[in-house]
Each structure stands twice: as C-alpha cells, then as structure tokens.
User: What shape does this take?
Amino acid sequence: MEYFLQQLINGLTLGSIYGLIAIGYTMVYGIIGMINFAHGDVFMVGSVTSFILVLIGGVSFGLSGNSAGIIILLALVLVVAYAMLVSSVYNWTIERVAYRPLRGSFRLAPLISAIGMSIVLQEFVRIAQEARPKPIQKLVTGGYELMSKQVGEQTFAVTITNMQIFIIISTLVLMTAFTFIIQRTSLGRAQRACEQDTKMASLLGINVDRTISITFIMGAMLAAFAGMLFFLHYTETDFFVGFAAGIKAFTAAVLGGIGSIPGAMMGGLLIGIIEVMWSAYFSVEYKDVAAFTVLVLVLIFMPQGLLGKPEVEKV
Amino acid sequence: MSAPVKASSAGGEAKVLSPAEIAKDLVITAIITFFILVPIVAIRTPLDQGTLTWHPRFGLAAALCGLVVVGRLALYLFVWNPKAKAALAPADASAPLKAVKGPSLGDRLGPKVAPTLLILAIALPFFFIIIGNADGMFPGWDRRGIDFAITVMLYVMLGWGLNVVVGLAGLLDLGYVAFYAVGAYTYALMATKYLPAWFGPEIKPYAFFISLPIAAILASLWGMILGFPVLRLKGDYLAIVTLAFGEIIYQVLQNWSVFTEGPRGISVPKLTFFGIPFDKSDGGFAATFHVGYNRIVYFAFLYFVILALALLTYFVTKKLRRLPIGRAWEALREDEIACRSLGINTTSTKLTAFAIGAAFGGMAGAFFAVRQEFISPESFKYIESAFILAIVVLGGLGSQIGIVFSAIAIIGATEAFREMEFLKYVLPEGTEPVQFRMLAVGVALVLMMRFRPRGFVTKREPTVYLKEKKAVSGDLVAEGHG
Assistant: This one.
C-alpha cells in the first residue's frame, strides 16, 4: 500500500509534465486539425534553454541546491520566463514557415513538413549543443515524509519531495490560468470559435491567422514550462528528450480525447501513472513500450478518447 | 508603392511592401532570429575537467543572425519584388483541364530513362573496377565506388518498398524501419542459431538465400499485424501509430537480450556465391571458377544481389500498379470515402499495401545484415525511417524513377559532406560537415512540401483515361500542376 502510494505520487508528478505538453497537441489539433509533430521538440527546446540558463546561473552566479529557497524560486521564474519566450518564438516560426503555407495543400503535406521540422529542431540542437546528455546537480532539494512503515528491519517511507510539490502546484496554477483564458477572455472565445468552424469565425471578424499563431504560442509556453520541470525533475536533458516525451504526450492527448483540454490533462496524468506503475511492478526497460501500447490500444478501441467527441467523417 | 497590394499568386509574402515596411519586417526578423539563436547557439556548454561549464559564442550567433537578415533582404529585392516576380512567374495554366498536346521533352525521354539507368546500373561495378585498377589514377576507388553503389541501391530498394505504402496507397508509415529490422534479425538469427540447429552446420553457406524468403514472409506478417489495428485510422493517427510501432520493435530488440542479444548485437556470416564462399580456400570462388583471388569480386557480387532485389521490387510494383489492386491503392490515396463508395474493399487494399511494402523492407533488411556482417538495434532507429521517407518524398510520392535520383542525391550529398574538408574552417569547432546531413534532410522535407509537393521529377498521369489523356491543372488540385 505504501509502495503504491509512493508510486502514485511519482506518477502524478510525471503525468503533470505530460499533461502540459499534451495541451499543445490537443489545442493545435482542435484548431487546424493537424498533429504538430514538432511539438515534442519545442518542449525539448524549452528544456535545453532552461538547462543552459540554469548552468549559467550555477557557474557564474553560484546558484545551487544550497541557495536560499527564495533565490532559487526567483531564478526559476526568470529561467522559465525566458525559456517560454524562446519556445514561443520557435513554435511561432514553425507555424509560419512550415504549416501556414501548406493550408489547403494535399493531405499528407503538413504532416511531412512537420516531420521535417521535427528533424530540423533535433539536429539543430544536437549540432549546437552536442549530443551527450547534460546533467546538472539537483536544484530543488528536500521533501516531506508523509508516512512510514516498518518492514522487518527497514522502514519504508512515503515521501513527497519539494520538487514534486513544485511540479504539481505549478501545473495546477498554470491549468487554472489557462482555463481562465480559454473560458473567460475574448481571445479564448476566438479560439473556441475557430475550433468549431474556422470559416464562420473568419466571417464574423475573427483574425483566424492571428488566433492560430497565438494558439501555437500558448502551446509552446506550456511545453517550455514542462521542459523546465522535466529537466529539473530528471536533472538531465539532451536533444532527444522531445521524442519519447512527445509521443507519450500525444498518447495523453488521444487518451483524453483529442481537442479537449481537460481531457489532455487527464490523459497526461493517466499516462504518467501507467508508466510509473508499469516500471514499479513489471519492468523498467519496457516502460516506453507500455506507453506506446496504450496509444495503439486507445486508437483501436476508443478513438474518441475519454472526453472527446466522436469524429464524423464528411465528404 | 504605398498601400500593400495583394498579388495574384498564393503564398504568405505575396505583398508589395514599401521600404519602411521592409525595414520593419527586417527588424522583426532580426529579433526572432535573436531568440532562436540565443541561447541555443550563442552559448556552448562543454565539459571542463568533468564538470559542465559555459562559453559564449556570440560571434557565430551574430553572423548567423546577419545572414538571415541579409538573406531576407535579398529575397525582398530579387524574388518578392513585383518586377522580379513577373520575370519568374510561369505562363498561366489557362484551362483547368487541357489535353496533353504532343509529347513534351520529358515524355519523349521518359521511356528511355529506365532502360538507360538499368544498363548503367549493370555496368557500374565494372566501371569502378577498371578505374580502380588503372595505374595510380584512382587507387582504392573500386572498393569505395562499389560500396557507395551498394548503399545507394539498398536505399533505392527501401525507397521503392516504402513507396508502395506511402506513395501509392497514401498511408504515411513512419515505422518502416521496423520491417527492415525484422528482415535483418530474421537472417541473423536464422544463420547463426536456427538453421544450423535444425539442419546441421552444412546449411550455413546457403543461409542467406534460404532466409531471404523467410525474411520477406515474416516482415509482411508483421506488416499485417501492424496493418490490422491501424486500418480505421486516418493519415495523422496512422503516422503516429506506425512511429510508435517502430519504437516498440526497437525497444524490444534492445531489451530482449535472450533472443536478440540486445545492444551487443549479432555477428552474421558473410554472403556466399550460392554456397561457394569468397575466400582463398580450395572450395572457394576463385578456385572453383579458376580466376585469380580478388576481394573486389565479393563486393561486386553483393552489388549484383542488391541490384537483383531492387529490380524485383521495381518490377513487382510496376506490374501491381497496372493490376486492380494497384489502381485501388492509388484510388485510396486520392480519396478514401469515394473509394469505399465505389465498392473497393479498403481493408484488404490497405493490408496488401502494408504487407507488400513490408516484404520488400524485410528483404532489404536481410541484405543489410549480410552486408554489414554485424547488426545491432542502433541501426534501426526512427531517424532511419525518416531518412527513407525523405528519399520517397524528395523523389516525388509515387514516382519510382524519382526515388532513384533522390537516393543518389541524398546519399551522394552525405558522402560529399564527408569530403568537404574546407567546411571545417567555416564551421564552429567540434562539428563535422557530415553532422549536417540529417539537418539538410529535414530542411529539404519542409522546402519540398512548400514548393514542390509532387517532387522534382514526378509526373502523375492517369493510368486509365477516356478518349484522350488530360493533364490536371494546378487550379484543380492542391499539389500543383501535373
């Protein structure tokens, strides 16, 4: 039981990260009906950017796990703000260069272009930052013991680290802010209108191009935040983290019902929990296989996902 | 030139801008490039005595930034300029459907391209052997030339195999390398474990030719296993599921050590001349046929084997295209709903496309294993699938001859990158020119989709037509004129 509880906490932490990435997939799919294949790599760009900034902070300004909590928090806010900016610029540029000119082209064109973009981002970062993983010392340390149990000689304690608290709370805050934007602001209304009917929305005076750009930017900001959390959580990042995380987040988006934002978050949490439980109870080696199998199973048996609407195919 | 005038042709930048607006646009470009380059390019993070540190690289970032801005300015001056545009614009495709008048140059040369290429392909190893052995002219070029030709031919075959799935049936398969892996591991395991165990060690020399059909069958079985679940999925989903499938196969190869030897890989026996080994022994090729021993004969034979396999792929596909199943594939690519309405069984159509494409991939995999003499999961990563896909896309989806040219171009470019020593002086330290090959492939994919979505040499003509052949104008289809 204690073991299960501990894994549940770990799963929720990982799931929060996947959920944040998944939102980017689901929003873009909702509006323009394509998978932004490069989204996982935008997440990677956010992750690598925050790594570089944290490294500079560590080498030149003495930022480390022993710094005062408030300084670390302040530094992380600065880091993530800049990483969000960089990722947004990337995603915006990708949309302008690789997707917008292809609207109305043949079916496979945007997807192939997206695959090309994903390769470009990975290779670009690999060449600029070299291929080997970038480790860094733990920045957010410490934690709380929730409960413990005596098993023979040893004690097994269920702990929640400060890092995990940070991840879960910041995800909650971001999700709340995000839901507010979608539900209550005119921007969100424009986005929902475009999602329902792009042509009608443009007839009613909504600048569709701008709305799509903003959607890409919002997706990138959430991905960059997830990228920083991912890097802080694993204390390591490289040019390839976007690949597996991207597929898993996409799985999350499909599981929750593609196009549905609460669904994406829920799917993310589920995928995180499945992955962690699989590693805990079966085998660590096959954890990616487990997540990918979930994707295949969901697409076969439940293509509309948990909260999605069934897609009607029209001529 | 005050107010922006909308030009007639499509495209994001089809406006005439005033100098002030161009200047503003350039400033925005500079700002965007700044964020793209800082910090990813502008900061280097090398290891310094075991710990990571950082070095600025602002000069490089500034140079790149300047290059982008100057490039965009040049585009404004010479390409997006109304005068330049008029000079560049092609004549209007007037009627949406117009009859093809008289054979064009391409049409007249078209039927001759394939036979010419075939003759060239057969003559190639002899050519390399001659120039390689000619006194001191190109020493070592026989080996290198044939090696290069084998690589190209292998990718041509893979491209033709994937073309069945992507180009003809329009199913975007990002996990093609999985079938390649199935073929390679089939041969490796057959040759090292199962065949000797079942039939005794005498079977070993024949292992490749016995394993080849088995590899094809197993790979096509896997193709169908993958095909079944994804039948209901459309374009984008299908791509992701095939990608996930490719990753699953890769992970299983990595982790199922008992069966696949895991990351250590498997050493596999060399190819034999239908049972006769290429060595100096009494039973070897040289002694049997009374020719002098030369290692190059082995490579020439490898080349002819892959040439034969590739030609098999080519002719089977070519014939299938003329059969109802091939037409059903192309119909499926164009419109699935219409296809279903006309009574085509989309299930079996998709499954056969997957199975046949996979079978060719499997055979190519078996050849890859025998050529490399060693395989490990590292050869079957996602990036390999993307590379094969790029060959198909650059050749023009559906065009078989186009794939030959794009394979030569992409692999030739890779080799050329390797040779370009002078680039090292331009590039930042620690980077090799050859590292840029996948970056170039990615850029090429994006540019192709934007400017030539039908590929460079392809031409899509209806196989069946009423009374006269009609070229479909670019106004009717999104892919452009053709």
About this structure: Residues 1-14, 91-101, 478-482 of chain B have pLDDT under 50 and may be disordered.
